[in-house]
Amino acid sequence: MAVFESWLHRWFHASVRGLVEFVVVAAVFICAVPTPQSLLCGAVVSALGLVLRVWSSGYVRKAEQIVGPFRWLRHPHLLGSLLLFLGLCLAGRNAPVTAVFLVAMAILHSRVYLRAEAAAAAQIGPAYTLYRGAVPALLPRLWPYALAATGLQPRFAWRQALLRGRQRELGAGVGLILAWVALYGLTLVPPLHQTHAVVALVALVSVVARFVYYASVRRKPR
After folding, report:
1. Confidence class for position 41, pLDDT limits 50, 70, 90
2. Among 45, 60, 75, 115, which one has the highest count of C-beta atoms within 10 angstroms of its own C-beta?
3. Could you give the CA distance from residue 54 to residue 173 in angstroms, rounded to a whole number?
4. Domain locations in the chain?
């Protein structure tokens, strides 16, 4: 697995988790039979996930600085990612794809969860033991967690959340909009195999383009 992950990162700048997420998205489009009702339901779930991702990306947790969504749950960005992709599956209205998504995310996110726990413990410091005992990982608590704060508390930073952060949620937002435009387009035409074949071809072209781009970047002299 480590060799495969290294190969993915070298040639596509991607992880196994990212690859699975891409496959899920491609499967949603290929197998999608969306309706206006499923699009609305999925949009609500995905929008909630995107809000959680943006909200959490605008903060950096440090010792005695539990702010923003981290006062309700320990890993809001992880929950936001799950909701974002779950909403996409609900919009596509395909039960097998949704079932595969739930199983795959449960397996992959167990590893992500362990890494996130280690990173959070390093960021917060000794206070993390108390924080972990009081704040759930993914199921939000009913009232915000209060930790005695010292010093100036960080504010939410839009630039950090959308452009400078590790996640760069602006890309996620744009991708979500484009995904819903494409799904809405599928509701306007009969569910012909040709339509889904075009969507699959676009997905394949995007993979090849990503490969070619990063391959060319690596060959450029520094």
Report:
1. very high
2. 75
3. 9
4. 36-188, 190-222
